């Protein structure tokens, strides 16, 4: 039985760990041909082996999404390898340093915005250019966050960037709907990822606090985000665009 992404060429950033790695495995299961991008070669190559072991056609490209030349080259490599692009998951991101707004350094602000927001913009710009060259059609999913829908204390640059991703998703969906290019975002709640692990080193009770606040009373797993991304990239979501979609165990419902 064919997967929901059977034969589709998919570009995934931040593929070397966490949500990106889990989503890459799900895309492989669903039949996609993969271009895995990450700035960390070790993680990217580990994911590459995982998806190849699942039988997927896949390549890895080293890519710093904060650099336009890297992104442009990665999309060019996608087209060189597979002849086209069908869907993309712009997922690469960092949380930055903690601290309230008056404590946020210029360097931290600039780095988080460069990767989490400008990086998504660069990826969308290159992907949309390619989809338009192909005559339209295709799907793009960006990683925003629950912090892109509501305020969170102690992460001003991250919250600003993720709100920006949600807004950019909506704006681009309006612009390219007439070309049948669907653009959505996932807004994960508290997910058990390396990022959560780093936050827990500073705030050891963070996982328990999130779990207590969740209607489902647990953290999410990276695969639960990946399943939503696969659906949004598939033809089964053919009437869904412009949606920053919470995948958060009901966290935003309260």
Strand and helix layout:
Blueprint: E1 9-13, H1 18-29, E2 33-38, H2 41-53, E3 58-62, H3 68-82, E4 87-90, H4 106-133, E5 138-143, H5 156-176, E6 181-188, H6 194-202, H7 206-213, H8 222-233, E7 244-247
Parallel strand pairs: 1-2, 1-4, 2-3, 4-5, 5-6, 6-7
Helix pairs in contact: 1-2, 1-8, 3-4, 4-5
Could you walk me through the main structural features you see in this protein, from its secondary elements to its overall organization?
This protein is an alpha/beta fold. It has a single domain, classed as 3-Layer(aba) Sandwich (Rossmann fold), CATH 3.40.50.720. It is 46% helix and 15% strand. It has a seven-stranded parallel β-sheet with strand order 3-2-1-4-5-6-7, sandwiched between helices. Helix 4 links the parallel strand 4 and strand 5. The model has no long low-confidence stretch (mean pLDDT 94).
Descriptors for this entry?
254 residues, single chain, Rossmann fold, 7-stranded parallel beta sheet, alpha/beta, 7 strands
Quick structural overview:
The protein has 254 residues and is an alpha/beta fold. The chain has eight helices and seven strands; from the N terminus they run βαβαβαβαβαβαααβ.
- Looking at how many chains there are and whether they match, the oligomeric state comes to single chain
Q: Total domains, how many?
A: 1
The general outline is: globular
Main β-sheet: number of strands, strand sense, barrel status?
A: 7 strands, parallel
Distance between the termini: 40 Å
Helix amount: 40-55%
> Regions with pLDDT < 50 over 5+ consecutive residues?
none
Major β-sheet strand ordering: 3-2-1-4-5-6-7
CATH topology name, in short, is Rossmann fold
The CATH architecture classification is 3-Layer(aba) Sandwich
* Number of helices, counting only DSSP H or I runs of 4 residues or more: 8
Name given to the CATH homologous superfamily? NAD(P)-binding Rossmann-like Domain
What amount of the residues lies in strands? 5-15%
What is the H/E order? Answer: EHEHEHEHEHEHHHE
Measured on Cα atoms, how large is the radius of gyration?
17 Å
Give the class-level CATH name.
Alpha Beta
Average per-residue pLDDT, rounded, comes to 94
The helix/strand class is alpha/beta
């Amino acid at each position: 039985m064919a997967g929901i992404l059977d034969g589709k060429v998919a570009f995934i950033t931040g593929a070397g760990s966490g949500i990106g790695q889990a989503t890459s495995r799900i895309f492989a299961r669903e039949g996609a041909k993969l271009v895995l991008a990450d700035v960390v070669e070790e993680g990217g190559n580990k994911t590459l082996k995982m998806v190849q072991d699942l039988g997927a056609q896949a390549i890895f490209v080293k890519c710093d999404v904060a650099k336009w030349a890297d992104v442009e080259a990665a999309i060019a490599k996608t087209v060189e390898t597979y002849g086209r692009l069908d869907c993309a998951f712009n997922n690469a991101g960092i949380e930055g340093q903690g601290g309230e707004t008056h404590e946020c350094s210029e360097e931290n602000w600039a780095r988080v915005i460069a990767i989490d927001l400008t990086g998504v913009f660069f990826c969308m710009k290159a992907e949309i250019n390619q989809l338009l060259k192909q005559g339209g059609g295709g799907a793009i999913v960006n990683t925003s966050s629950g912090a892109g829908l509501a305020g969170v204390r102690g992460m001003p640059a991250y919250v600003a960037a993720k709100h920006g991703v949600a807004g950019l998703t909506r704006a681009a969906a309006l612009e390219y709907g007439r070309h049948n290019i669907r653009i959505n975002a996932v807004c994960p709640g508290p997910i058990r990822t390396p990022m959560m692990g780093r936050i827990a080193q500073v705030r050891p009770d963070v996982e328990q606090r999130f779990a207590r606040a969740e209607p489902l009373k647990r953290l999410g797993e990276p695969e639960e985000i990946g399943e939503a991304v696969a659906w949004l990239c598939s033809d089964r979501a053919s009437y869904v665009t412009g949606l920053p979609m919470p995948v958060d165990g009901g966290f935003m419902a309260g």
